[in-house]
Amino acid sequence: MAVSLLVWCIVTLIYCDGSNTTELTFLETKILQMERSMAIQNDRIKYLEKKEVMQDRKIENLKEEIYRLRPDMKSFKRSINSMMKILMKNRRRMVRDYTPNMKSDSSKHNSIVQREVGIEQGKTNLMRQANQIIAFYAYLNNDVKSPGIHQTLVFDNAITNEGKWYNKFSGTFSARMDGLYVFSCSIIMDGPGQYASFEIVKNADIIGTFFVDPQYDEGYKYSSLTLVVYLHNTDTVFVRIGSSYAVIGNVYSRSHARSSFTGWKLN
What we know:
Signal peptide: 1-21
Helix content: 40-55%
Number of helices: 3
Subcellular location: Secreted
GO cellular component, one term: extracellular region
Structural class: alpha+beta
Largest sheet: 6 strands, antiparallel
Keywords: Secreted, Signal
């Protein structure tokens, strides 16, 4: 298209009367438009190259997270299986040792009581593990300069991380138990003329979006989103730059105003 326009301009200049300033002005305008179009295309190519680098980095972070969590999941499953085997084994022993004259045999009676206590303690431990408090709160230590579309925001200062399910190095929360969870994110943009959309993502699915737009304000502006979602074991949740709009500006986070991400397990 640009080549055709250039040829057209050259041909027109050859046959154009030098006194016809209107046509010359028209041609100059077309040339300027073509130069601006080429500049936009160059900017787009640079943006796509930057996006590719960010996506490669995100893939590497996710791989590291998978490798890190794999031993923890195996250990957790082994602990549950081992505890269930112990409970079943104690229950079989209690049934096997039961006799009609159990009340007259104090030693057997005490042994059965101890086994019952052990079973109840095992149940209590399982319930305690199921009702473990899971909660995190993290914020950005510094501004995120000119982020790209679908770039994950890594909230690298974890003030609260009960259960250790949030990874401050990758910015991801990984559920290790089925249940209902609450997530909330608050983002600040760095001053007038800047805007961006943001997404809360579960695995590869967008479960929430919000927009920050301070371009008509004199100062900073923030926006937030809170949602409730059911997660299965190994589901992952994180915050990233949305694709609804091109990103203009920086994500702001300083000592007097923090962009943050938080979440907790309801049941």
